[in-house]
Each structure stands twice: as C-alpha cells, then as structure tokens.
Amino acid sequence: MTVILSTQIPGRLAGRVPTVTPERLLAELVPPPRFASARFDTYVPDPNEPSQSAARDLLAAAAERPGDERRTPRFSARRLLGRGAGSPNGGFAAFEGKAGVYLDGGYGVGKTHLLASLWHATEGQKSYGTFVEYTNLVGALGFAACVARLATRELVCIDEFELDDPGDTVLISTLLTRLAEAGVRLAATSNTLPDRLGEGRFAAADFLREIQGLAARFVTLRIEGRDYRRREAAAAPAPASEADIAAFLDADEPGRVVDDFGELTDHLGTLHPSRYGALLDGVEAAALRGLRPIDDQNAALRLVVLVDRLYDRSIPVLASGVPVDRLFTPQLLAGGYRKKYLRATSRLVSLASAGAALVPARS
Q: Is the distance from CB of 204 to CB of 198 less than 8 angstroms?
C-alpha cells in the first residue's frame, strides 16, 4: 500500500488533527526514511569499540540463509561456527536455539542502523517498527488480528523496546510468545537489558514471570560506545532569536511550520501517539518558539515520541527559548525514564543543529 502524504500544510502543527487508519499503521511498518538506505556495509563502527564491529558481523551473518532454506524459526549458528569465536559478544554460537536477538547499549551507538540493516538484508515478508508502533497496532487491529498479520512475517524488528506499564508487559510478552511459536524471527533494540525491563517504572517484581519469559527468547548483544551524534559537537546550538525564526519563515520554502512550544505540547495531549507521524506529513522543517523545561512526566513522554518521529524523518528543528538539552528537568532525568529522555535529547540536539544551519546569518 502506498501512503500518500498531504500537500496541504497548515502553518502550525497544533492546527492539525490527522486520522490514521489501521491499514496505514501496517503499511508504515518499515524502516523510517532516515534509515531507508541503512546497510551493514554503511555502518561505521567506532574503531575503539570492538563490540560495534562484532555486533555488525554477527547480524550480517545471521541474515545469510542458504538458497534452499525455508522458514527458519530460530537464529541458527550451525553454518557460522568458527567465523566469530572469541568475539566480545560470545561468537555466533550464541544465537543457537533463540527466537530473537536483542541489541542492548546506550543511545547513539548505531543500534537502530544495525536493526534496519538486518531488516533490509532479510528476504521475505517482514515488519519494522518502534515498540510504541506495535502497541498502537494491537490497539487498532485487536490482539488476535495483529498476531494473525504479523505471524506471516519472516522477521519482526522492534526498535526502542521498553515496558512502561504492566499492561504493556503482559501484552508484548504474549504477542512475542505467539510470534515465536509461529516461527517468526525477532530482533529488538533497547537501552535496557531484557531482564531489567520495567525497572523504575512500575512494580516490575510483580511481573517477573513475563519479563523473564521475554528475556529467555533473546540472545543479547551488548554494544558499547559514545553517542555518535555528539562526537563532533558536544553542546546544543544556541537558541534561535525571533529574527532567526522570521528569516526561517521568510525563506518561503515549502513544508515549513512554526509553533508555540506550549501550544504544541498541549495539542499533543489531545492526540494518540499513533498519530504523531501523520502530524508531520509533508513537513520539511519546523520552528518552535519558547522552549521551556518540562516537569510533567506525561507531557515529557509525549514529547519523546514526537522527537522520535521528527528524527525518523530527518526534520530540522529551529528552536527559541531554553537550549534543547535543557528541556527535561533534573527531577525527570533522575526517574525511571532517564534513558528515554537522554535519547530524545541526543536526537533533538542533532535536529536543532540542522535547524540552526537553515539560518545562515545568525543574530
């Protein structure tokens, strides 16, 4: 199915109320535009972090399948023995008998690039989406229909895997169990080890069976390293001035929008996160006026989802107010969602640097 983007772009995101059909959610289960060309041979590992090149080689080998091989329910290492023994991640034999591979590591070490590369290298029907997109799909289709659709896939990739509440824990545990039983290969990325999902967010001990069941389905590849987005520039760009934003709008480029930050965060609260991608249809660049620190956790988590969708689409952001790396308060950063906020900050710094470059003469 081809998704047609709207060409009618209002002047601000807060004025948009998109409708998203289940068919669109299914059609969009592919790597986002930023990673449409991601391949194993375009992944550039940090030479000082051998775990990065080891993970790339492991996944590239796991994607190789003999020409006469049919549906393979497990990541098999039989034909790979001897090609990676002694690697930091334990060699290819670690895949034997597991339904899935789980890429664990800090933000900005290339996990999403590797996950998208695995998707591109795998033949047959496959799905790629964030954890939030899969939970949205279950909500749109219903659990049984979602299982029926995904069970036909050779590979299901889940980016940014997190368990934010008990309901998601049971839901995703059951979903992945059904898919693994159907012979679907699984691959996921996260900033949290699978046996520690949910910690700091809810009473994870009460759902230990589900969490341990999830962990048992994956072999974990740990990827070390620094955030590649901030190797060159460690700081957020200076906030834009009103003159900068005026110049941004005066350029009369198609697809540019401008929003008051407070109005936009309020508007996000009226939309289900499954609509945030559609909110950005046709948007090429966005200006945000009056950024200020967020201390409400619900608003902060909604902003994280929006930042992810902006980053997926490589949409530059020109922002005034506080620097973009000061959006999340110390209280929020000390809580259970710390890694989500740090990932969003890293991505927003990258987008804001691109946004600042759209205004050649900075005042």
A: yes
**Alpha-carbon distances of 250 from 237, 245, 291, 293, rounded to whole Å:** 21, 9, 21, 28
Contact call for residues 344 and 308 (beta carbons, < 8 A): yes
Domains in the chain, CATH or no CATH each = 31-226 (3.40.50.300), 233-356 (no CATH)
**Separation between Cα atoms, residue 340 and residue 162, nearest integer Å:** 9
Residue 39, Cβ neighbours under 10 Å: how many? Answer: 13
Q: Cα angle at 140 between 136 and 146, to 5 degrees?
A: 85
**CA Rg, the chain, in Å?**
21
CA distance 276 to 352: 19
Q: Which are the contacts of 198, defined by CB distance < 8 A and separation ≥ 6?
A: 163, 164, 166, 169, 204, 207, 211
Cβ proximity of 214 and 128 under 8 Å: no
Per-residue pLDDT of 60-90, as tens digits, reads 887 765 443 444 445 543 332 233 333 334 4
Mean pLDDT, rounded, for 101-106: 83
CB 236 within 8 A of CB 349: yes
Full DSSP string of 68-119 = T----SSB--GGGTTSSTT-TT--GGGGTTBSEEEEEE-TTSSHHHHHHHHH
Each residue's pLDDT tens digit, 260-318:
999 999 999 999 888 999 999 999 999 999 999 999 999 999 999 999 999 999 999 99
pLDDT of 99 > 90? The answer is no
Burial of 153 (0-12, 13-18, 19+ CB in 10 A): buried
Distance CA 211, CA 207 (A): 6
Instruction: Please give the share of the chain, as a percent, with pLDDT higher than 70.
Output: 76
Percentage of residues of the chain with pLDDT beyond 90: 46
Compute the 3-state secondary structure of the chain and give helix, strand, coil in percent, each to the nearest 5. 45, 15, 40
Task: Please give the mean pLDDT across all residues of the chain.
Answer: 80
CA-based max dimension of the chain: 63
- Which secondary-structure segment (H or E) carries 221? strand 218-223
